[in-house]
Structures are given as structure tokens and as C-alpha cells.
Design a protein that fits this description.
about 240 residues, alpha/beta, Rossmann fold, seven-stranded mixed sheet, three-stranded antiparallel sheet, 8 helices, globular
Length: about 240
């Protein structure tokens, strides 16, 4: 593993492939979790590296002192599909993390992609606001948000060339319409909610994302992930991409 820091507000941890990347992130998160017995709120993402991460958590938690019993699971984003749909980010976590570890259903706060989007956003906002502490701006503070990186630099379902309403959204969740990546209708954490989190850990893995990551790490970057980096005092990046 190689570690470097940049811009004084991010740390890059480099790995040889997705499996060691996922195991390192899982181990670091379990170590963080073991340091506190209080409620711990996280938001997870979908994608291939998320599957690796979930599987690593399920394996490593068996020998870790950390307890997942105080973790409240939220999502960074979700496709507007039913929870049993192959494209569902919830289903990925359900199969690779929740079922193997018998996570209590009351701890799982999925984004309900099968509902009317406005109703799904309202329910998600109320659920997160009920459990999370708030910052000075009144935004709920998530302990750790796990993000993946798209080939175009998108994070969660925050896409390049987003309309002003997406960039300016002040609520925790919002409906994304006409996403350039199918399906076009999605639910996502806002930039404001990601900026408010205590920790943001980017798991950037896979070929075809080199340019997106390089542009994002540039101080003048304009990708969605660059916007996230520029909004935060610290972000942790786990990657098998050569940057």
C-alpha cells in the first residue's frame, strides 16, 4: 500500500487491485467502529467495488472486536427500482452484507426506489433527520459515507453537467431526473449532505476511471468528485488506479 496526501484535504491510499483495496477499507472501518459504542450512521453505495467491500466486511467482522449492532445503514444513492431488482443498490448490500451478518431490519434504512420519487425523498429525509445529529446549518451529519467513482467522475447519482437545482439542493436527499446513466430516475444524497459528513471514503476501482480520478484530484477539477473534495476539509481515497 502507498499513501500520499494532496491539497491538504485528501489522502490517497493505493493498492494493487480491488480485493486488497476493499479489505483495507473494511478493516479501517471496523477499527473505527470498534472505538465507539455509540450509534454509528453510514451511507453506502453500489457498484462492483461495493460488493467487494461488503464481502470483506462480512468476512473480517468475524474476527473483529467491532460490533455492527449499533450501525444505522443508509444509502448514498439508489435507482428508482424495486428492492428485488437486479439494479438495486439495496439488493447488493442485502445479499453480500446484511444477510451474511444477520443485520437487524430496523437498522436498515433503504431508499425506497419503488415509491413515487417525491414520497421516497420525503421519507428518506425524515428517517435520516430523526437519527442523525445536525450541524450548524441544520444538516444531518452522517459518520461515514462510502462513495464509488464513475468513469465520468460522478459520485452517488450526482452526475456531470447537473442542473442548478441539483448543485444548490440543501436537503439531505433529492430526486435525480434524466440521469445520463440508466436508469434515468434516481435518488441521491446531495452535495450539501456529503459535505456535512464526518468522514467520506472514496473507493475508486477499475480501468477506465484514470482520467476521472486525475481530474478530480486537480485543485481546479470540475468533476462531481472534485466538487466533493473542494467542499470538505478531509477525504480518504482508496484506489487501485495509478494516479
Amino acid at each position: 500500500m502507498k499513501v500520499r496526501e494532496g491539497m491538504n484535504n485528501f489522502e490517497v491510499k493505493s493498492f494493487s487491485g480491488p480485493d486488497p483495496l476493499a479489505r483495507a477499507a473494511a478493516r479501517d472501518w471496523l477499527d473505527l467502529l470498534s472505538q465507539s459504542a455509540s450509534a454509528h450512521l453510514i451511507a453506502v453505495s453500489g457498484g462492483r467495488i461495493a460488493k467487494n467491500f461488503f464481502s470483506a466486511v462480512a468476512e473480517l467482522s468475524k474476527s473483529s472486536p467491532a460490533s455492527l449492532g449499533n450501525v444505522e445503514f443508509f444509502w448514498a444513492d439508489e435507482r428508482c427500482v424495486p428492492p428485488d431488482h437486479p439494479d438495486s443498490n439495496f439488493l447488493l448490500a442485502q445479499q453480500n452484507l446484511f444477510q451474511p451478518l444477520a443485520i437487524a431490519p430496523r437498522r436498515i434504512h433503504r431508499l425506497k426506489g419503488e415509491l413515487d420519487p417525491s414520497a421516497a425523498v420525503a421519507e428518506a429525509n425524515a428517517d435520516l433527520t430523526r437519527l442523525a445529529p445536525k450541524n450548524k446549518a441544520g444538516l444531518p451529519v452522517i459518520d461515514v459515507i462510502f462513495l464509488g467513482l464513475g468513469e465520468d467522475g460522478h459520485v452517488a447519482s450526482l452526475m456531470p453537467n447537473a442542473p442548478p437545482a441539483v448543485l444548490a439542493a440543501t436537503g439531505p436527499y433529492l430526486h435525480i431526473e434524466k440521469s445520463p446513466k440508466p436508469p434515468p430516475s434516481r435518488l441521491s444524497l446531495s452535495y450539501a449532505a456529503i459535505a456535512a459528513a464526518r468522514e467520506v471514503w472514496m473507493l475508486a476501482s477499475g480501468s477506465g476511471k484514470e482520467e476521472a480520478l486525475r481530474q478530480s484530484l486537480n485543485p481546479g477539477g470540475t468533476t462531481p468528485f472534485a466538487r466533493v473534495l473542494q467542499s470538505r476539509s478531509q477525504t480518504r481515497i482508496y484506489t487501485d488506479i495509478n494516479v
